[in-house]
Amino acid sequence: MYQRTSKDSHLDTVWYEMDMLEFSYKEFTQKTRPPHSPESNLFIEGFLLHYRNLIQFFSGSEERHKRYKGNDISTFDPKVWAGRDFRADEIAAIKDPGKNLDNKYSNKISNLLQHCTKKRVNPLQGWEMENMHCEIEPIMDAFAKMFPREIRVCAWAEGESASTATVVVYKNEF
What is the pTM of this model? Predict the structure, then answer.
C-alpha cells in the first residue's frame, strides 16, 4: 500500500502543501525537460494543485467554508488549526493577500486542472509560474514566521546508560 506523508496536525497539512508547492516549482524551473513531456506536465500540475490549495487556505473564504460544511481548514476558522483567532497583522499579511490570489487564480486553476472540462481544450492556458510563485512567496514567508513548523527529533545514547529523548525544534522555512 502507498500513502503520502503522515500529518500529526492540521498545521502539518499546510506545511505539506507549502513543501509540495516549492518542490514542484523547483523541479520544474531548475531542470531541463522536453516541452510538453509528461514529467513537465506533472510538475506544472503539481504546482497548480498545491498553489490552489494554499490560496484557498490563506483566503479563508466564508462561502467555501459553508459549501463544504466546515470540512476545509482555512484562515476562516484559524482556531481549528492555530488554536486561536487571527490578529490584525496576520489578516493583513496572510488572509487579505490570499483573497486576492484566490480571486485571481482559484477558479481558473480548478476549471483547467481539477476535472475534465471543455475549457481544457481551447484556448490552451499558459501559466506564469514565476510570477505566481513571487505572488504567493510573501504570504508563505509570513505564515512560516507566525506559525513555525514543529520538528520532533528522537535522540538516543548507547551503552549502559542508554536512554532516549525527544527534542522539539521549530523551523521557520519550507
Answer: 0.82
